[in-house]
Specification:
By secondary structure, the protein is mainly α. The chain is built from 3 helices and no strands. The longest helix has about 55 residues.
């Protein structure tokens, strides 16, 4: 009786392993088929047509933030440039003209 249980458990484990293997094969095949379909030009064009309104809407919502980011970057550039000019002017004023070129 114990032997029958062990054999039954072993057979059950093997069946589960084979089922998992079959499921992996089915999953891989399905993924490959989906990728093949997505590689076609007509499907790519249809996806672009489908996503274009959504992307336009997202960009329309983000334009003010993009503009503000550009303005802040430009302002920080001007501030850094001003600091650089002040440092150069301070260096020129504190040293003698001959020491600058040494």
């Amino acid at each position: 009786m114990l032997f029958d249980k062990k054999v039954w458990i072993w057979v059950r484990k093997e069946n589960i392993k084979s089922n998992i293997s079959v499921m992996d094969n089915i999953k891989d095949t399905l993924i490959e088929e989906c990728l093949d379909i997505l590689k076609r030009d007509d499907v790519k064009n249809e996806l672009k047509q489908l996503m274009k309104p959504m992307i336009d809407l997202i960009l329309q919502e983000l334009y003010p933030y993009i503009f503000l980011s550009i303005v802040f970057v430009f302002i920080s550039f001007l501030l850094i440039l001003g600091i650089f000019v002040l440092l150069l002017r301070n260096k020129i004023l504190t040293k003698s003209p001959t020491a600058i070129f040494k």
